[in-house]
């Protein structure tokens, strides 16, 4: 159930956006600005009583489908729609499927290009969609032109990853727990389910870790690698989310003096 303040904010939001809309048809003098509740209700395919109650901050339960119709009837922008669902305590079904647009956000590309330290972007499917020269030189076997650039496939399926990452199994398990946090938002996307099914079949470690149900947000911290040419490398990792596309990630690694890293044979 929504608390009183949440219901008040939701009602104020819906009323303000209804009043900004032009009425469906001119019927002479009107006491209220914009579209009437009855007009909005008809446009959204719901009862006028329900519209009145939600504007009055009364205890009503709105399904995601009803909220989607209301958002379209109010002609809400993407940010406004997200706000409507957030105030209603519901998950927007339209955001559960990753955007098929292949082009990464311009802000992500600009920042990655401008950084001198290794940096890369991840798309909603965890493909590396953009990276700079420093990242290409640091992560041989993943970001160079001859290899698969999907992060999970590289870590779990490519033998190069075991040589590059000294604590490979622990890092792989943590990476999977971070992926599962995203999976909770995108599991209805057939591409995401297909990726998980593929890795469950091809990687025993992925299957084992997947069944453990670990979940965590993508965290920063120390990241160490054994470069085939430069030897031990040490970075502090930071992850950011572009404001205009929150299903993308920007990952940057700030170089630091290498610790006493034991190089495995």
3D architecture notes:
This protein is an alpha+beta fold and 265 residues long. It has 2 domains: 4-95, lambda repressor-like DNA-binding domains (434 Repressor (Amino-terminal Domain)), CATH 1.10.260; 106-256, Beta-Lactamase. The protein contains 12 helices and 5 strands. It has helices at 4-20, 37-44, 48-55, 64-73, 78-88, 106-114, 133-138, 151-157, 159-164, 168-186, 190-202, 204-211; strands at 119-122, 128-131, 221-227, 231-240, 249-256. A 5-stranded antiparallel sheet has the order 2-1-5-4-3. A hairpin with a 5-residue loop joins strand 1 and strand 2. The termini are far apart. 27% of the residues are buried.
CATH topology of the largest domain: Beta-Lactamase
Shape: elongated
Helix-strand sequence: HHHHHHEEHHHHHHEEE
Q: Indicate the radius of gyration in whole angstroms.
A: 24 Å
- Per DSSP E runs of 2 or more residues, the count of β-strands stands at 5
Q: Which strand order do you get reading across the main beta sheet?
A: 2-1-5-4-3
* Percentage of residues in helical conformation: 40-55%
The secondary-structure class comes to alpha+beta
Mean pLDDT reading: 86
- Domain tally: 2
Largest sheet: 5 strands, antiparallel
| Second CATH tier, the architecture of the largest domain | 2-Layer Sandwich
């Amino acid at each position: 159930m929504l608390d009183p303040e949440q219901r008040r904010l939701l009602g104020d939001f819906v009323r303000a956006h209804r009043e900004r809309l032009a009425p469906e048809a001119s019927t002479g003098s009107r006491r209220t600005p914009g579209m009437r509740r009855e007009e909005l209700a008809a446009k959204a395919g719901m009862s006028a009583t329900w519209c009145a109650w939600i504007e009055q901050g009364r205890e009503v339960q709105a399904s995601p489908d009803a909220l989607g119709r209301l958002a379209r009837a109010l002609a809400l922008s993407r940010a406004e729609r997200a706000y409507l669902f957030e105030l209603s305590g519901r998950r927007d079904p339209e955001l559960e499927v990753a955007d098929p647009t292949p082009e990464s956000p311009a802000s992500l590309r600009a920042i990655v290009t401008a950084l001198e330290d290794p940096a890369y972007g991840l798309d909603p499917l965890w493909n590396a969609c953009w990276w700079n020269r420093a990242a290409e030189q640091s992560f041989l076997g993943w970001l160079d032109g001859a290899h698969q650039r999907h992060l999970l496939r590289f870590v779990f399926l490519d033998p190069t990853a075991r040589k590059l990452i000294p604590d490979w199994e622990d890092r792989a398990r943590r990476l999977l727990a971070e992926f599962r946090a995203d999976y909770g938002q995108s599991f209805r996307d057939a591409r995401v389910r297909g990726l998980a099914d593929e890795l469950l079949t091809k990687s025993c470690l992925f299957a084992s870790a997947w069944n453990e149900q670990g979940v965590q947000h993508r965290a920063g911290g120390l990241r160490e690698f054994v470069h085939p040419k430069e030897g031990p490398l040490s970075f502090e990792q930071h992850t950011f989310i572009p404001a205009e596309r929150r299903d993308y990630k920007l990952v940057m690694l700030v170089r630091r003096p290498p610790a006493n890293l034991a190089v495995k044979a």
